[in-house]
Amino acid sequence: MKPRNQILVPQPSRRRYYGYGIPGVDLSALAGKLIVVEGADGSGRSTQIALLVEWLEGGGHATVQVGLKRSTLVSEELEQAQEGNILSRTTLSLFYATDFADQLENIILPALKAGFIVLADRYIYTLMARDLVRGMDSTWLKNLYGIALEPDAVFYLNVPPEQLVQRTFAKNTALDYWESGMDLGLSRDMFDSFMKYQTAMHKTFRELQRTYDFTMVDGTRTADAINAELRKKISAVLAGK
């Protein structure tokens, strides 16, 4: 059994993009690790990432966090545009793609080159799932996100819609317009729309999992139980297994 603070030295991995990537980047120089935690709002992503940061930094690893709507280029504009609830599906998709591309080029790649462990609070999978549920073309989306670097590990916190809605109400006492899929016209009732939308998202993630082979994690357990599983799997990634 390894001591609590023993440093696990990340082992080199075979880097590749999902598609055409970003020209001029030496993938062999990216010594860090890219770890993605996926899941719907209310799945416990933020809690798990906070626990992982504490664990990794306690073990001597430098970490960087990225996520949706964190780009200095378009995050504020995207937030303002969403407040009006009038974005078309294509505009919304391109806004998020720009947000991702900016973080990839200016945060993720430099951090990996410096040997950091990058923790992503969602990645292209959420963006693709949202767009697919909204009827966007899958081939177009794969080309759009061909710039994405393939992560070293992806964990999807699997929580059924019935529990998501309970957690959301307990935390916010209200449902979000976009996370309820109200733009899709599924139902005039936001609760009903939320259930239908999250059910569709859950199904789409299952389909994406078969393509991108990420790890499904039972998100209905306690935070400590989930974190113990993530630590074990990430330790194996850092050890090159």
How much of the sequence is in beta strands?
Answer: 5-15%
Q: Give the strand order, joined by hyphens, for the main sheet.
A: 2-3-1-4-5
Q: State the secondary-structure class.
A: alpha/beta
CATH superfamily: P-loop containing nucleotide triphosphate hydrolases
Secondary-structure element order, N to C: EHEHHEHHEHHEH
Distance between the termini: 17 Å
Gyration radius, in Å: 18 Å
Number of domains: 1
Task: Please describe the biggest sheet, giving its number of strands, its sense, and whether it closes into a barrel.
Answer: 5 strands, parallel
| CATH T-level fold name | Rossmann fold
Identify the CATH class.
Answer: Alpha Beta
The CATH architecture is: 3-Layer(aba) Sandwich
How many H/I helices? Answer: 8
Helix content: 40-55%
Q: Shape from CA axes? A: globular
Mean pLDDT: 90
* Spans where pLDDT lies below 50 across 5 or more residues: 1-5
User: What is the β-strand count?
Assistant: 5
